[in-house]
Structures are given as structure tokens and as C-alpha cells.
Amino acid sequence: MARTLSVDFLENHLEPLPLTLLRLVKTEAERLDLPLYIVGGSVRDLMLGRMIKDFDLIVEGDARKLAETILRRFGGKVVFHSRFGTATWTLDETTFKRLNVPMLNAADLPPFLDFVSARSEIYSEPGALPTVKRSTIEDDLRRRDFSINAMALRLDGRYFGKLLDPVGGQVDLEHGLIRILHARSFVDDPTRMLRAVRYMGRYGFQIESWTLTLINKEARDVLSRLSGERLRHEIDLMFEESAPSALLQRLGELDLLFPIHSSLQHANFQLPFLEVLSAEFGEFTIPDIMTFKRTLGWVLWLMPLSAVDIDALSKRLDFPAMLTKAARGASSLLNKLPALTGSKPSQWTFYLEELPSIAVYAVYLMRREPALRDYLAHWRNIKPTITGNDLKEHGLEPGPKFAEILHQLRAARLDGEVKSREEELKLVERLVS
Ligand code: ATP
């Protein structure tokens, strides 16, 4: 692995737009004489020879000044967060015009960049969010979680490509080791234990032996008091990795699940590959707050738990209501499956329609019951051609009888007992008389 980085190397590992932005920021930082670095995960992935999608930027000095200069030259919008010494520059149409690059798809890369002033952190108490203070790049690297995430590559002027590696991240990368930087690290921020497991899974690395000893009672105690939101976020990220099952198992082996919630040890640790939904399953409604994969991951994981456990977990981890509903739905469907087997399509459909479709899909992935696939792909869309309006035209008044007729019509359609409008009409007449 090289200690310096060439322009070519960067060009080959970044998509054209992020590369253009990186060049722009570099030029502006040089004009202002500000040392500029990419840091953290992007450096780690570059050293591993991986393509990087985006990058974290650190300025040794005033990030706000850099962002303001860029705003003046390239337009867009800048928001400052003085508490963290960060400035977020959001690109807009003007920016893309001035850069002479096509406006990109929002899905390709978020059209913003964060500029962060190098800082140090102090934890007032275990598990609390730190207070931050402007500092040097070296201090900034030393406040980080693991050595492999504590490297910086300098970008400005003649220093371009210089690697800063104060805690031996490069050697740990070569040996595949995840090492924290000081003995209180997991107590200060126990989410780092979960982050360690995520990197193990992603890169096939090991937790270094001293680091492993620090996953101890004290750190687990702080973990058990951490906010639900922080914990859930870390687990959300696991479901975005390629093999979440292995990560969840590893959490169990390291005794990190019990401190989060005792019921998690009874969850499902044999998750199927989180399949991207294929078109044959039709439309699903998933709110924006969580991606499909994350929701699916949680539902698969929690499916074997009882409704009581799911509710308790939902409270502890601050689940959005739709996730609680989906996990409860999957759990009850799993229990009901033996009783439903051999039922008519209408019986399946009327039961399954009460559940979120993602719950049905999750149970299908686990059990491969063909009726669940048929329901998602076909049955739920089957409706009789006769509508309520048609019944009114036949002189029927809306009411319980009216609803019952529509229900029976739909059941007959689903079960193939009527196949045409004529047959539907005959059935209505029979039902009315
Ligand atoms: P990923 O590829 O998973 O996004 P990343 O390294 O970019 O990995 P982020 O969560 O985006 O991860 O964090 C960016 C950087 O901030 C990390 O590389 C690390 O240096 C630092 N960092 C993130 N979370 C923590 C933490 N809990 N404690 C200390 N440093 C952290």
C-alpha cells in the first residue's frame, strides 16, 4: 500500500461528479491557504482499493470560510452548525451550470457536501454526546472510533496525496484488524461496539485482542442505557450490509444483544438474503423514513417473537409505528400459517389483507409458502367487475347486506367460482333472492 496517493489513483476510484467537486474544493482551499483532507471511511476504502461514492472533508481551520467562498463562486446554499464547526453546502441548478456538469439524479449522490473543521471531543459522561472544540487534524483523527477509520489524505497543493496515519491504521488494514484508540472508547460511545461488528462483517476483519477485552461489563452497561434511536440506527445499518445474519449472530456471541433487550436472543438468526423485491410481487407501500431493506431486515429478525416482546422492543428502540405493525403482523402470520395451509384463495386474501404487505413478504421469504406469493403477486389485486354503484343501480341500498354481497362476489372471483360479468350478475341475483 502506497504512503502517497496519485491524482490518477483518485480519478480511478471516484465517480466523475464527486471528483469534480473534490477538485473544486481543493482549488478553493489552496486559494485560502487552508489545509484540506479527506478522512475516515473514504480513506480506508481507498487504501483497500475500493471505489468510493463520497468522502468526508476536514479543514484544518475555518470550514465556514471555505464554504462561504465556495458559495460566492458556485452558488447553492450553505447552512452552518456552529456547535459542531460544520458547514453544509447544498448544490443547486446554478452550481451545476457553473461547473458545467449535467444536473445529477438525486439518487446518485446527495447534492451536498459537508465541510468540517478539525476538532477534538470531550465526553462529559459515558454514552453522552461529546462536546467539541476546534483543533488539529491529528487530534481529529485521535477522537475517531478505530485505527482503520483514523487516517487522512491531504489534498491541498504540494501536500496532495500525503497520508496521515497517527495510530497505525494502515498496518491494521493490512492485518485485517479493528482496533479502538483508547481504553475508554467503548464506554464513551458504546455504539462503537456495534460499528466494530459491522466492519467485521463487511471486510471479514477481526476485532484486535486488546479491543476485544474492552467489550466488557462496563461498556455493556452503558450500551443498555443508550437511547433507542441511536441503537436502532446502528442496527438499521447492519441490514444494509450484504450478510446481516452473520452480523446479528456475532452481536449475540459478543453478548451485545441482551443489554439492548432480553428478547433479542430469541430472534431469528437465519435471515434469508434480503432480496430486492422483484416486479412480480407488485407494489409495496413503505414510508420514506426507512428503506425497504431495513424494514424487511427488522421484520425477518423479529418474526419469531411474541406480540408482547415486539411491543416491548418497539418501546425500547423507538420503532416507527409502521415497523411495529409489520413486525407484529409477520409474527402473527407465522403462527397462523399451519391453520391457513390448504385454505381457499379468498380465505388467504381476507386474512392477509389485514397485514402490511412487507410482513407477508417477509414470511414468504422464510417459509416459501406459495399462497403468500400468489397473494402478493395476484390475489390482492383481484376484484369483481361489479361495483357498489352497479348494486345501487340494481336498487340495493348500502348496508350490511350490500357489503356482504360485495364480499361474496370478491370471494367467488378469487376462488374462480365466477369468471365473467354474466356469472357475477347471476351470483348477485342468487344472493339478493
Ligand atoms: P461507512 O462505510 O459505513 O459509511 P464510514 O467510516 O464512512 O463508514 P461514518 O459513519 O460515515 O462511517 O463515519 C465517518 C467517520 O467518522 C468514520 O470513518 C469515523 O472516523 C468517524 N466516526 C463515525 N462514528 C464514530 C463514532 N461513533 N465514534 C468515533 N468516530 C466515529
What tags apply to this protein structure?
binds adenosine-5'-triphosphate; about 10% strand; two-stranded antiparallel ribbon; 22 helices; about 50% helix; about 425 residues; seven-stranded mixed β-sheet; alpha+beta
What order do the helices and strands come in, and which of them pair?
Elements: H1 7-13, H2 16-31, E1 36-39, H3 41-47, E2 56-59, H4 63-74, E3 77-81, E4 86-90, H5 93-99, E5 112-117, E6 119-122, E7 131-134, H6 137-142, E8 152-154, E9 163-164, H7 169-175, E10 177-178, H8 185-188, H9 191-203, E11 206-207, H10 209-213, H11 217-225, H12 228-238, H13 244-253, H14 292-302, H15 307-316, H16 321-340, H17 345-352, H18 357-367, H19 370-377, H20 388-393, H21 400-414, H22 421-432
The site of adenosine-5'-triphosphate (ATP) has 9 residues, from helix 9.
Residues in helix, %: 40-55%
Residue windows where pLDDT falls under 50 for at least 5 positions: none
Overall SS class: alpha+beta
- The overall strand count is 11
Largest sheet: 7 strands, mixed
N- to C-terminal separation?
Answer: 84 Å
Helical region count?
22
Which word captures the global form?
elongated
**What hetero molecules are bound to the protein chains?**
adenosine-5'-triphosphate
User: Averaged pLDDT, please?
Assistant: 90
% residues in beta strands: 5-15%
Oligomeric description of these chains: single chain
Strand order of the largest sheet: 3-4-5-2-1-8-9
Q: What gyration radius follows from the Cα positions, in whole Å?
A: 28 Å
